[in-house]
Amino acid sequence: MLRAKPFVPPQWASALVPPRSGRCKFAALPTPVMPWACPELAELGVRWSIKRDDFSGVELSGNKARKLEFLMAEALAANADCVVTIGGLQSNHCRATAAAARLVGLETHLVLLVSDRKVDEEVGLAGNLLASRLMGAKLHLVAGSDYLRAGGDLKAMDRLNAAKADELRSQGRRPYVVPVGGSGGAFALDGQPVGTWGYLNAVQELLEQLRPRPAADADADADADAADGVQEPDYIVVAAGSGGTAAGLALGCRLSPLSAQLHAVNVQHKPDPYYDLVDEEAALLGFPRELGAARELLTIHDGGGLGYGVASREELEMIARVGAASGVVLDHVYTGKALYHFVQHARAHPEAFRGKRVLFWHTGGLPGLQTKSDELVGMVPPAARFVPHLG
Fold first, then answer.
1. Quick one: 238 and 301 in the same domain?
2. Which residues are catalytic?
3. Which of 9, 73, 164, 308 is the most buried (most CB within 10 A)?
4. Rounded distance between C-alpha atoms, residue 98 and residue 234, angstroms
């Protein structure tokens, strides 16, 4: 089984509280950064690039792999015998946690939020559930009405998560609690959001790709890790599900030499709780207050729309259009909403984005898109019968 290794923070992050438990290096890093033939905002001359964190490994774990490297290291340091986390029925985070926990030898308990009418039903093997269950995760279903009674917000998920952990402790288990989305951490050892370090460190990775070392000083394979024809972006765009990815990128963009402005799109609730989360994590990590509050570090756009995991026809049409034009498939829960709502903002403020370089940080989510196959049928090129000529 994998074990934690020491982690040295980037020099520009030396003022922050480091993750003392180290890091379990199971993600496939660095992920590629490359030009992107995204058809959106062509009328503004936007030059797109993309950071492919959907290639991060750990069973298609997307952005979660970076956070879980630090979270699993803390779980091992806490002498846990299992991991408990929470999410929606098709949670990318829960599937990723199941994979990461097994890589370090821990059992996984997944608390999955479902509608009241489905809480006593068999949930099946569609989308993310297939991978989670094949990796031995134990599923615990919680009804939507229980979520509402717990507060119906980001904190409500953590309350339900904590209740399951208490139940496991009453059975003599030693659970490590991973908060919803891997944002922050269980605060088990250091009282700090260790998961956020995944995206603080990702900023350093991007810098090294955009500013490769001179050939004389570089490693033999450095060219393979460098960006291929990508210049430093004016803007970075990312989805915000639980907020930890956006928090790490926001702090990293302010502390590091990277000068890009960060735009995040919340995919549930409203922007205010996400700004609050960034401020909270910044304080816990010792981020200098004089460098700015959350609203000075990033811009968050409201992409909650029809609700978590519910995509509009316009969003699905854009996913199909972008896939056909660029060879990159977005999902309907996170990345599709992030791109759609950022594009709407850019079109409403054209002069701010005309001719700019925009890097889209692809955080994964492809397996869950399977659940939207019926709605997407009319949006993809039709199949045609092939008649072979065998003369």
1. yes
2. 91
3. 73
4. 36
